[in-house]
Amino acid sequence: MEGIPNGPKLAYHQCKNCPLLDHIIYCPVAVNISHLIEEFKFSTSYDKTLVVVETPERTYSQETTVQNGLSAILGIYMVTSGCPVLDYLRPMVRFHLPFATATETIFRAVSMYLVAQYFRERKGLEPDWKVEGLVSIYKEISTVNKGMWNRLSKASGFDANVNALIVLNTFGDALRFSLKKDLKNLAPFFTKYLEE
Question: What pLDDT score does 88 carry?
Fold first, then answer.
């Protein structure tokens, strides 16, 4: 976003649900991803690439498209930026699964949310065992993704950055749809727990 003078400014295509106060000058997400966006601004979504992710515990690799590889890293950068809306996903960063499928992402998000409810209950707060709040969280995250899409579409000469964000948003939409269907696609994994 270096090519756009006001790109990282909070007011530049500010997300409609942004809770940050006017005295904050820069959007934390835009600042955190600006060098990444700059690096890929001339990349095309469907260019094939080998992506290798190294962590202290293991190494992941996959031949994939630039948009899919970029989507995985973009999600981490966004969630760890300090955006109050995206902070709900911060626990998932520690247990990030590169190249996750939609089903894996749904499982991780729901599991993370239910663990959070366990800690809420232990602290004396009202837990949400019906997982209704997760739909609201992902709706807010979708609004942030759309706001960032508006920024990125102005900052990229090609489509990899913008499409990487669309991939991220698609996973969120899949999760919201799955929650509306009572997570039926995950039920087969739990047959042993459902025995009388």
Answer: 96
CB 85 within 8 A of CB 20: no
CA pair distance 15, 181, nearest whole angstrom: 28
Q: What is the DSSP string of 13-69?
A: T--TT----TT--B-HHHHHHHHHHHHTTT--TT-EEEEEEE-SS-EEEEEEEHHHH
pLDDT of 196 above 90: no
Q: What is the pTM of this model?
A: 0.86
Q: Which of 147, 135, 141 is nearest to 181 (CA)?
A: 135
Could you say which DSSP state residue 9 is in? B
Q: Are 78 and 32 in contact (CB under 8 A)?
A: yes
Please determine, for residue 46, whether its predicted confidence score (pLDDT) is greater than 80.
yes
* 100 touches 106 (CB < 8 A): no
26-49 mean pLDDT: 90
Q: What is the distance between the alpha carbons of residues 131 and 117, in angstroms, rounded to a whole number?
A: 9
3-class DSSP assignment, residue 7: coil
Q: 184 pairs with which residues across the strands?
A: none
Residue whose C-alpha is closest to residue 98's, from 182, 192, 167, 9? 167
Instruction: Find which of 85-89, 164-168, 182-186 is predicted with most confidence, using mean pLDDT.
Output: 85-89
Tokens of 179: 């929650």
